[in-house]
Amino acid sequence: MNMQTTSRQTAAEAALIDAFNQHVGDLPGNGAVISARDRLVDDLKTNGLPTRRVEAWHYTDLKTLLRALPAMQPAGLVAAPAPLVETASVIVMQDGHADGKASVEGVVVGTFDAMLREGTAAPGLSVIDGDDTIGKINGSFVRDGYVLEFPEGVEIEQPIEIQALHGAGQIHTRFPVSFGAASKATVIERHVATTDGQAFVSSVSDISLEDGADVTWIVLQEQGSSDTHLGQVRIRVGADAKLRLFVINAGGKLVRQELRVDVAGEGADLQLRGVNLLGGDTHTDVTLVLGHNVPNTTSTEIFRNVVFDRARGVFQGMIKVALDAQKTDARMACNTLLMSDDAEFAAKPELEIFADDVQCGHGATVADIDDNHLYYLMARGIPRSKARAMLVNAFVAEIVEELDDEALVEALETVISGWLERHA
Amino acid sequence: MAAVQETIDQVRQIDVDQYKYGFETEIEVEKAPKGLSEEIIRFISAKKQEPDWMLEWRLDAYRRWLTMEEPGWARVDYPRIDFNDIYYYAAPKTTSGPKSLDEVDPELLKVYEKLGIPLKEQEILAGVDKPRVAVDAVFDSVSVVTTFKKELAKAGVIFMSISEAVREHPELVKKYLGSVVPTTDNYYATLNSAVFTDGSFVYVPKGVRCPMELSTYFRINEKNTGQFERTLIIADEGAYVSYLEGCTAPQRDENQLHAAVVELVALDDAEIKYSTVQNWYPGDKQGKGGIYNFVTKRGDCRGDRSKISWTQVETGSAITWKYPSCILRGDDSRGEFYSIAVSNGHQQIDSGTKMIHLGKNTSSRIISKGIAAGVSQNTYRGQVSAHRKATNARNFTQCDSLLIGDRCGAHTVPYIEAKNSSAQFEHEATTSKISEDQLFYCLQRGIPEEAAIALIVNGFVKEVIQELPMEFAVEAQKLIGISLEGSVG
């Protein structure tokens, strides 16, 4: 292992800096925002994109994997897809732009563009730590997004679907969302490519749950087969709040989904679930950093991955228990099915524990489909290919079934089985 | 139960903060000047009467080392090491190597006596029941004595210090040295390649089952010296050998560096069992002093159906940075790693293993038990990978951490990489403190708290202790008890 002390700027790195220099004039934002952007771009200029030597990016060497960037201006939009759940309230982002007139009953809806222009967005354009490359890129280029505020005690029955639709080009969006105390809602954050052209997407959801909020947040990523998707969900969870966070990856060429969760209030309870459907030449990385920072909190994390073709999957899951976070109960599991000889998967489930009165564990498996299960089905006259498909489907659908909302479960199962039919 | 009781008694007898092996011995010593340079390397090589190729090998490594940077990825924290403030060569003053025990400095023999290591063959031979163990004792930079050489030679087993082997069996050394851990491997391994002073060499010929346990005891005695030993073990086709190393050092205020390299080569159907009881001086209660233990250990299952098994009990050292690994190159080869890592006081451990599956139908098993007490930090870092051609690779990993006290940290960092769909990897890890229920159960039966904890800890590490040769299992259990001394209450 040789240390490389100096490194050349890559084409993609140069393109990022160039794009910023060219377009800084037409990015929205007041003085405070502009200086925040400048700081982030300077950081990118000095440190470049992360390589495998950066531990947090060990399996996703962005410097090598990100080859080139598409033009800044997105283009090529077609019609919006139907919402996952028929009764959902839909708000649409088109090519990275929010609709200023969008509204959802019971929720205060604003645009991030307005926040940027007013300058109230400036403090949020910061990075979580030095490894937060997504925060750097998104903060430098972000144009728009929805700002949602769920008032205290509000209960929204039907899911809210944010449709982030785009064609080719660069799209940088941000969704600051606050759930007031004891509010209750389900939000679907859906990223969909509507054309085959190459897109470069960065998206940050900056979410806070006040005390006692009860929230289901679903990220469904269905980018095109040549797209780069750099997604980040930052969540702060308050006391006695309940969070169900589901992340489903079913597209994209180079994908990194970062979940940065700060469990900040006692009595908080989290269920984090992930389904990664990987096929073709995709490189998909899900990185979770979960900080249990106060006593008496619980969490479970289950990630299921199915890897076809020449796809490469990565799961990095870090549970951190802070010094005084006694009585933490955290369990994480990551199970992977490798469906082809050219498929690869790397898992790094980490525990970092500084408190002693805790129960923490993780498990990880990588394997092919269990021969016994296959035999069981085939013995009942089900052909091999169908039996395999059934088992794979069951393996991932199990996760989705934990959701309470039946219509939502059905919709997500349709997405999953549709994807599997196309790839199996 | 007897062993458990012994642990408890041992713990009671000993004052808090006492390191049993902390004595220093006044022995006349010959040292090379402080610091590191080509001259020093030439000096070491000349002292060892090495052939030219060996010197060149060292110099190559040294030049390479100059271009390298110290790794910073491990979860350990220490001030920068001044590599020019270390003596790279220190040897008890004797002219040429001792021919028999009578020629060895009596002070030295006392050292080993104090350590409880029998060097006198006849004593062992007299005790009919006692298992026989051949010992190679390394004091600072040189091997002082190797026992049972003749008897081993009868079986065809070569067991000697590596410096002797360089002179007497250059063809074997040339063929295998650096073939598992190349001189370019990592910062400390490269440093070791340049300056290694002594260590053990074992060659077990085809079809031979080594008739006794082999063991090496390492002792750092001199101030400001670094110990850089190099061990090379080769098990030829169908051979079997079990090897144990133990290490101790005097109590000192400053830190001392220990950067060893161990290479194991197992050919077709061969098996090597390597056990370590590492008890370097861990520093005092305030975290002052102690050994920096930066070690590269790697086994190469080069032949089909070969097996390498690592067992380690780590209780000493201020900082441990060590990943005994297996390269499963041969088809149907097997790697095992059993570890107990105990940290107390200000100790920092970053240890684990690598299982690199390259051949077909290879399997590996990892059992790691970490126990953290005091304000120590205990990290398991392990890698399991299956190469694209490693069909039917199997791994099972279990790493459990036990926390004693609320100021220590336990961390688990596994890297699981599968590039073959027929690979089956299972990994599980848990972290918790001693179960209240178990403790209550013991206390309620009148077992005092400290004894109860020793009992529970011994239960926690049982799976690993079982893997140790019997006589060392008892020693290891005692050590764990002593290491955790003062961590309760």
UniProtKB/TrEMBL annotation, chain A:
Pfam families, per database record: SUFBD_core
Biological process, per Gene Ontology: iron-sulfur cluster assembly
Domain SUF system FeS cluster assembly SufBD core: 170-395
NCBIfam families registered for this protein in UniProt: sufD (TIGR01981)
Protein name, as recorded: Fe-S cluster assembly protein SufD
Automatic annotation (TrEMBL), chain B:
Residue ranges of domain SUF system FeS cluster assembly SufBD N-terminal in the record: 149-210
Gene Ontology biological process terms in this record: iron-sulfur cluster assembly
Name of one Pfam family that matches: SufBD_N
Record-linked InterPro entries: Fe-S_cluster_assembly_SufBD, SUF_FeS_clus_asmbl_SufB, SUF_FeS_clus_asmbl_SufBD_core, SUF_FeS_clus_asmbl_SufBD_sf, SufBD_N
Residues annotated as domain SUF system FeS cluster assembly SufBD core: 218-460
Family: Belongs to the iron-sulfur cluster assembly SufBD family.
Protein name per the record: Fe-S cluster assembly protein SufB
Organism per entry: Rhizobium straminoryzae
Gene: sufB
